[in-house]
Amino acid sequence: MAEAARPATNKTGRLGRPVYLLTICQFLYYAGVSVDLTLTAVVGLEMAPTGALATLPLTLMTVTGTIASYATGMLSARYGHRSVLAVGACIAVTGGLVSTLAVQTDSFFTLCAGTGMVGVYRSTGGYFRFLAADLVPKASRTRALSTVLCGGVAAAIVGPWAATQSSGLVGAEFAGSYLLVSCLAFAVVPVILAVRPATPRPTEADSDTDSDTADTEEETAQATRVRDVVHTSDFRRAFSLLAVSTGVMTMLMAVGPIGSKHAGHSLSQGAMVIQWHMVGMFAPALFSGRLTTAWGPRWTGMLGASLLVTGAGIGSLGTGMSAFMVSLGLVGVGWNLAYVSGSAYAVRCYPQGKGGRVQATIEGSTACVGAMASFSANLVFSQLGWTGTNLAALVLPLVVCVWLAVARTPEREPAAA
């Protein structure tokens, strides 16, 4: 089958302009979302009528993001990624403005409404990489996935810093931070609308399949059905790597600051642990795509799962500052490698430009696992402590690593539909 879209890659193997625009979108997305993640729990604690409701705004952000993850993929299958991602950014613009108004008027439930809308925007974050994979030649799909994630490297550093620096710029404290969320989301709209697939050059191999060479956004009516791929090894591996890595990373990141505080470390030290964890999550994107292309997603996925096991294992050995930093740093790197390799398996499940339904299923299911890990993290920590939580967290990635190691299914691109 001819590829859905082919950007102007040159002989040096450079990715096309659309991929770099999507990397900018990913940076703006992570920078904006990190503002909410950094401040909403603190703001909620100050504004909530009772302490029990302090985390409600953050919880609503997670819940709406989880629900909307599936809807985003299904709508993308019908209307195309660019339109849906632009609408998601516009919803975040509104959500940021509502949150700004909430802080200015000291209205807790208005804040809940604003963060809930930003949660809808959160559901779009994983689809930038899928769109990038649809806009490059088949051999470059994994590199495109990884390159887009590079946007998170700068966002991991800039986002939390910008959240605190902008907090007092407008009226009440933190109003400027939520206004920044709107500005960053607004900046996504023109960039995502500028993403256009390059016109493919006709080749002799393509001459018999002209009907298949339409723009990616116009092929969505023939989106691959989930029931046609759910039993394939590629789908199972994609789901296992993405769900397990997201669940383990989310749980350990959630309990990291709590464990650090219980161990007697300062708040600034706890923040440093999370910052290095986020750098570990996104910095490997500079090479994980090439690594996955060279080794294949199976071996890269095994390496990622092994690092998740190693990071959790180190975390279970002690509560010193070095143990926290090394543990969560390795968990971040392991997540990146498993995430990229799982995404590489996911894009094998469908012809380019026809994966909206498959993406919706994988993203929605992964978001559910992440939400459950986030909600249960405090309960698990209170029952097992830092050591026990890490020991529990290493079980599933260990199972995935062993499963991939003994798998005998040959790795190859599926035949085009």
Structure in a nutshell:
With 417 residues, the chain is mainly alpha-helical. The chain has helices at residues 17-47, 56-79, 81-105, 108-122, 127-134, 141-149, 151-165, 175-193, 233-262, 267-282, 285-295, 297-315, 321-347, 356-393, 395-406.
Please describe the structure with a list of short key phrases separated by commas or semicolons.
0% strand; 15 helices; mainly alpha; disordered C terminus; 417 residues; globular
Structure description:
The protein has helices at 17-47, 56-79, 81-105, 108-122, 127-134, 141-149, 151-165, 175-193, 233-262, 267-282, 285-295, 297-315, 321-347, 356-393, 395-406. It contains 15 helices and no strands. It has 417 residues and is an all-alpha fold. The longest helix is centred in the last third of the chain and has 38 residues, at 356-393.
Helix content: over 70%
- Structural class per helix/strand content? mainly alpha
Rounded average pLDDT: 82
| Basic shape | globular
Number of contiguous helices: 15
Indicate the low-confidence ranges by residue numbers: 1-12, 199-221, 412-417
What is the helix/strand order? HHHHHHHHHHHHHHH
β-strand number:
0
Radius of gyration: 21 Å
Question: DSSP strand (E) fraction?
Answer: under 5%
- Cα separation of the termini: 7 Å
Major β-sheet profile: none
